[in-house]
Design a protein that fits this description.
By secondary structure, the protein is an alpha/beta fold. 37% of the residues lie in helices and 16% in strands.
């Protein structure tokens, strides 16, 4: 049994950050009832191509949707209709957690805000995820990952430095602000569940993409807040460690990650540059950072003289951290990925498919792969019948009226 197999989550979220969080909870065993708009569903069902092909060759859901919606039951309900909002309130009375990511104040008009739902279920954990939180001058502003990567400082430290070819602020290749927020959100829900179990009390969780991205600036933030240094774009270089970057080699690129002085001495020996380890400009990391340009200019022609395989063999033998830059197909073909089981085969309604596995490894309560991402409304009848005890005739009437 999963660690959260006793937990029921009502998921009113869509797109990525909040669904990422609820998928984590579902992987840990929680029952996730995902509410979607009839006929449309989660926007990510349409974020393609590529799309899944149905059994008859028609276009199905976008593969984007599959990334964040495993272990969930899809129930279609129009919450803008009074009858639909009433159904959701009934489900919320039976839930331990509600997760939503509507704009601030949007759900209050339907009686689906924290105050309304907690009045009927005082133990309810109500997690609201927005772009900028429920207070402050930007509380009503929509928050999308791309905007948050920019407004939250990440793009200011990502990309080639000014003066280099292609220099401009650059977003990360995945929606990392959404993903980090999803992780923080899952942690917050787990903490609230512990409090709920101990006291019987629910609470409101106010999660903001902007806040989470600022927190995830990590050392770059403290470089500024504590060190007084305003970080800038350095391409593939590191602001605090040298040499810790990508180098061109004779047949591609190599990541060199020298993290301390001992590793630098080992690297210098493997590279035939022993003299550099004794050079006062490069003997310590602080000096290497101060003389970054001089050191990199010395290393670049040496690195370019050998192949990727030659460098990896030499540096791994010397215990110097290094690595290739793999394409995504190479990641999942890597023997390490195969040994660790980084993909999982699941039976989807359209046929078998391979998805990215959860990285969570728990010996006593392992992750569960109960169900593939659902079709839109796949579980509407099941949930209304079994959870709310609504007769089939009433469900059909709700369907004809467009409520579900």
């Amino acid at each position: 049994m999963g660690a959260l197999s006793h937990i029921k989550v009502l998921d009113l979220s869509r797109v990525l950050a909040a669904p990422w969080a609820t998928q984590i909870l579902g992987d840990l065993g929680a029952e996730i009832i995902k509410i979607e708009k009839p006929g449309e569903g989660d926007e990510t069902r349409h974020f393609g191509p590529p799309f899944v092909k149905t059994a008859d060759g028609a276009k199905g859901d976008a593969t984007y949707f599959l990334a964040a919606n495993r272990n969930k039951k899809s129930v279609t309900v129009d919450l803008a209709r009074p009858e639909g909002a009433a159904l959701i309130r009934r489900l919320a009375r039976r839930a331990h957690v509600v997760v939503e990511n509507f704009k601030t104040g949007s759900l209050a008009r339907y009686g689906l805000d924290y105050e309304s739902l907690s009045a009927e279920n005082p133990a309810l954990i109500y997690c609201s995820l927005t772009g900028f939180g429920h207070d402050g001058p930007k509380k009503d502003k929509a928050g999308y990952d791309y905007l948050i990567q920019g407004m939250g400082g990440l793009m200011s430290v990502t990309g080639q430095p000014d003066g280099a070819a292609g220099a401009e602020p650059m977003k990360v290749g995945v929606a990392v602000s959404d993903l980090v927020t999803g992780l923080y959100t899952a942690i917050a829900v787990l903490a609230a569940l512990l409090h709920q179990a101990r006291t019987g009390e629910g609470q409101m969780l106010d999660m903001a993409l902007f806040d989470c991205q600022a927190a995830a600036l990590a050392n770059q933030a403290t470089n500024y807040l504590v060190g007084g240094m305003l970080p800038t774009r350095l391409g593939n270089a590191h602001p605090n460690i040298v040499p810790y970057q990508v180098f061109r080699v004779s047949d591609g690129h190599l990541i060199l990650a020298v993290a301390n002085d001992r590793q630098f001495a080992s690297f210098a020996k493997a590279a035939g540059l022993e003299r550099l380890a004794g050079d006062a400009r490069f003997a310590t990391n602080a000096e290497r950072v101060a003389h970054r340009a001089e050191l990199i200019a010395l290393l670049e022609p040496v690195m370019a003289a050998r192949s990727l395989g030659q460098w990896i063999d030499a540096l791994e033998a010397a215990n110097v951290p290094c690595g290739a830059i793999n394409r995504i197909d190479q990641v999942f073909a890597d023997p390490q990925a195969i040994a660790r089981g980084l993909t999982v085969a699941m039976a989807h309604a359209t046929g078998p498919m391979e998805l990215v596995a959860s990285p969570l490894r728990l010996s006593g309560t392992p992750v569960e792969y109960r169900s593939a991402p659902p079709l839109l409304g796949e579980h509407t009848n099941e949930v209304l019948r079994e959870v709310l005890a609504i007769p089939d005739g009433e469900i059909e009437a709700l369907r004809r009226a467009g409520v579900v």
